[in-house]
Design a protein that fits this description.
CATH architecture of the largest domain in chain A: Orthogonal Bundle
Structural class of chain A: mainly alpha
Shape of chain A: flat
Order of helices and strands of chain B: HHHHHHHHHHHHHHHHHHHEEEEEEEEEEH
Number of domains of chain B: 3
Shape of chain B: flat
Number of strands of chain A: 0
Oligomer: heterodimer
Largest interface: A-B, 73 and 79 residues
Order of helices and strands of chain A: HHHHHHH
Largest sheet of chain A: none
Chain lengths: 170, 667
């Protein structure tokens, strides 16, 4: 009996702020280790894969160089492989080279400049609008909650109740 | 010979006439129902069931005639010339019907008329109720549109050129895996099923009965459609994994996006509808979501079936485009018009008290899902916009979507962790501290354990942690519910929903792990000399050639770790000429080993170029998918008796009350 009470008390105690602080510390440290320990692609082969995933196969319908079995895609994979094996330091350089050769349509990730920047900016804009809309809605609800019901409101509720009754009957 | 010609003529004529009958039935069904509603003619309204059966018979008939033509190899038909072949095996010949545009419209029709008749049957005792009648009118109108499409721009029953006696058969990718039989129809069951809740939403707007009743009528239809859309999408991923040879399950291809868009808005709907049922709020929003979901199925079909977007899946065929686009426009204009017209009735009494509440979490969920849907739509149509405005070609591919979906995924996982423990109306921080404690430690555990195993990277580990946190919250709810109610604690939408959540989390974790920690390498294997990669050895046993009437190719036997041999192949379909690699996969609980042949492999050779992928946790994608389906089934059953929005839990909080709101837990 006393044991079960103790357990309940212990459970309660654990869940107070100290328990949460320990938890936060564990999570932060673990995530820090995870971030510091991460390095880019490990092997040449992984690096080739990650670069070819960013390029569109120039002769296919919407497949990437990574996915496609078309000969153009195989050729580009060979080129990437040569660059990687030569030790070209930056992935972007390789992508730029391929792009110069085949044109902008080989790029799977649109540039963040000019008109194309919209494809990056609009999602952020949409997010801001949505959050702002939500904030406005909550503000309005808060105002509504603070007011007393008017006769109009009561009429609306009555209409809704009548609707419901009618639907139940039908 | 003459007999065959006659039979041939019959198929085209029969197909056209059946479609015409369908169009007439749908038109008269719609007109009669509207007339019946206008004149209050209950007898007439009760007879509308016959039109539904007529429409159904016509839709199924058209499909059957086309199957008959395919089975007979009726070369007088253009469609059979296009997708038929004497060499196609029976099964793939049956599925050839949905391997091109015209036939896929017939599949759409079959599913649509099926839903129409199910509604007429399910509500047969209430056909005189204007709400049901208007819903049927909407179904009839949508049927009309698709019959028109099948008769006009997407005519599957056109007569073909004379003298043709052979065809290429369906696209090679559509005749080398059994999933071609399941993925398209199941996906369509979900995709087209979104028409039903849309029809009831429009009916509610027209009749002005925007109360909660129509929602509970259609909730199961919405859930049913959503469930099938989910299965369809997951089967599509599985199919891609099994046949495409690049070891991926999702490529953010426009057609895939077209199926994801209604899934996103549909998911938002099945959450926010709970707020309306419980609190009577968010009426306009829910109607908008239903309209958006249905409109997106039509827009998606326009994008992928009109040839405006290039894609592996797309059937490029020009003339259906304007029809689909006009229909999309009509849906949007009519729906928005109706919502504006009923604006006064849609104003809902009540308000949401605090962002930190179940309602608040559902709203946040809705914001994330709709913005996500917007981003997917934007990325899909952006190349079109650029082309139209600036006349240059750009691509928006998988890396764009992957990058942008990370924040959405992380936020959704977080919401899945917090939302289930939130009470309706208002929560205190003390309550959250109490209820989230053990789930949060579950999350910490799912960061630390993978870290110890060697997983690195902030985003993936954060995802694992939130996945653990969220499954902790879902399990907590299930444990409490089963403790209270026994096995019934697993049934009903709150509890079944938690099982769906666990399925989603499993899928999310598997997706993150398999995309982040996949390793691959190109190996040159030699007979008798095992090569090793990623802790496994691969030994070439032999390379054989094979031939079937429709294809020939090579198949390698590769032993993994000295054990069983796996046999990746490359197939060349004689009528098409391109090489189709068929991967071979050793599936495991922790890792899949995925073997695919590279070009340059030759039969009888003693060396073989191939590619091996080591992909963690892939099998959990399918397990998670199965859990989602199981949970959806459980949540379709009624749980504890539903409360009406006017019952006490929805009453205003008495001022200064100390009543523990937290006690109201279940939905």
């Amino acid at each position: 009996m006393s044991l079960s009470i103790n357990r309940r008390v212990l459970n309660k105690q654990l869940k107070r702020w100290p328990g949460w602080l320990v938890l936060a510390a564990v999570v932060v440290i673990a995530l820090a280790v995870a971030t510091v320990g991460s390095s880019g692609p490990l092997t040449d082969s992984d690096r080739i894969d990650s670069i070819s995933q960013r390029l569109a196969c120039p002769t296919c319908d919407g497949e990437s160089v990574y996915e496609s079995q078309a000969s153009a895609a195989r050729g580009i994979r060979q080129q990437i492989k040569r660059f990687v094996e030569q030790g070209t330091p930056s992935d972007d350089q390789i992508i730029q080279y391929i792009q110069n050769q085949f044109g902008a349509k080989t790029l799977l990730v649109p540039n963040a400049s000019g008109f194309d920047a919209l494809v990056w900016a609009l999602p952020a804009f949409a997010f801001v609008v949505a959050v702002a809309g939500l904030a406005v809605a909550f503000r309005r609800w808060k105002l509504v909650a603070d007011t007393v019901a008017t006769d109009d409101d009561r009429a609306l509720v009555q209409a809704a109740l009548n609707d419901q009754e009618r639907e139940h009957e039908s | 010979m003459f007999a065959v010609e006659v039979a041939a003529g019959i198929n085209a004529t029969l197909g056209h006439s059946v479609l015409l009958v369908g169009l007439v039935c749908a038109t008269f069904g719609a007109l009669a129902t509207v007339y019946g509603i206008r004149t209050n003619d209950n007898r007439l309204l009760r007879s509308t069931q016959r039109y539904a059966w007529g429409v159904c018979a016509a839709g199924v008939g058209a499909f059957a005639v086309m199957e008959r033509a395919l089975i007979q190899r009726d070369w007088s038909m253009k469609y059979v010339q296009q997708v038929g072949s004497a060499d196609t095996p029976f099964l793939f010949n049956i599925t050839a019907i949905w391997s091109a545009l015209e036939g896929s419209i017939l599949l759409w029709l079959v599913v649509l008329v099926g839903y129409t008749v199910v509604i007429a049957q399910r509500f047969r005792k209430r056909l005189a109720d204007p709400l049901v009648a208007w819903a049927l009118v909407v179904m009839f109108v949508v049927c009309m549109f698709f019959f028109l499409l099948a008769l006009g721009p997407a005519d599957a029953f056109q007569r073909g050129a004379l003298g043709v006696t052979s065809g290429p058969g369906p696209n090679p990718l559509l005749q080398n895996h059994i999933l071609v039989l399941f993925h398209p129809p199941i996906l369509y069951l979900g995709y087209v099923g979104m028409t039903v809740p849309f029809a009831f939403a429009i009916a509610a707007l027209i009749t002005g009965r925007v109360g909660e009743r129509w929602l509970s009528e259609t909730r199961r239809f919405a859930l049913f459609a959503w469930g099938f859309l989910t299965i369809g999408i997951i089967l599509g991923g599985w199919w891609s994994y099994e046949v495409l040879g690049w070891s991926g399950v999702w490529g953010w291809d426009p057609v895939e996006n077209a199926s994801l868009l209604p899934w996103l808005t549909g998911t938002a709907y099945i959450h926010s509808v709970l707020v309306q049922e419980r609190r009577g709020m968010l009426r306009v929003w829910n109607l908008t979501l239903l309209v958006a979901t249905f409109a997106l199925t039509i827009l998606g079909t326009f994008l992928t079936r009109s040839g405006v977007i290039q894609s592996v899946h797309a059937f490029s065929n020009g003339s259906v485009g304007p029809y689909l686009l006009s229909f999309f426009g009509l849906i949007v204009v009519v729906s928005l018009g109706l919502i504006a017209w009923r604006g006064d009735r849609l104003r809902s009494p009540g308000s949401i008290d605090s962002p930190l509440s179940r309602e608040g979490a559902f709203l946040a969920n809705n914001v994330v899902f709709t913005v996500f849907a917007f981003v997917v739509l934007l990325g899909t149509v952006f190349p079109l916009i650029v082309e139209a405005l600036q006349n240059r070609t750009i691509k928006v591919g998988a890396p764009y979507f992957e990058r942008l979906s990370i924040p959405f995924g992380i936020t959704l996982l977080f919401l899945m962790a917090v939302a289930p423990v939130l009470p309706w109306r208002k929560a205190s921080t003390e309550l959250l501290r109490e209820r989230l404690f053990w789930p949060a430690w579950g999350g910490a555990l799912t960061i630390v354990v993978p870290l110890l195993i060697g997983a690195r990277g902030l985003a993936p580990l954060l995802a694992f942690g939130l996945g653990g946190f969220a499954s902790g919250a879902a399990l907590r709810q299930l444990v409490l519910a089963t403790r209270r109610q026994g096995w019934r604690g697993l049934v009903g939408r709150a509890n079944g929903g938690m099982i769906v959540h666990i399925g989603v989390i499993v899928v999310a974790v598997a997706l993150v792990a398999s995309t982040t920690y996949t390793h691959s390498s190109r190996l040159i294997l030699e007979v008798g000399k095992p090569a090793s990669y990623g802790g496994h050895t691969f030994e070439l046993i032999e390379v054989q050639s094979f031939a079937t009437p429709r294809s020939n190719g090579i198949r390698a036997q590769i032993s993994i770790d000295g054990g069983q041999a796996y046999a990746p192949a490359i197939t060349k379909f004689t009528n098409f000429g391109s090489n189709i690699p068929t991967p071979s996969v050793r599936t495991g609980i922790l890792n899949d080993i995925y073997l695919t042949l590279e070009s340059g492999a030759k039969a009888g050779a003693t060396t073989l170029p191939m590619k091996v992928f080591i992909k963690p946790l892939i099998i959990w994608l399918w397990i998670g998918g199965a859990l989602m389906v199981f949970g959806t089934l459980l949540s379709a059953f009624p749980g504890t008796r539903r409360r009406l929005p006017t019952q006490p839990t929805s009453a205003p909080i008495p001022v200064g009350s100390d009543e523990p709101l937290a006690e109201i837990v279940d939905v």
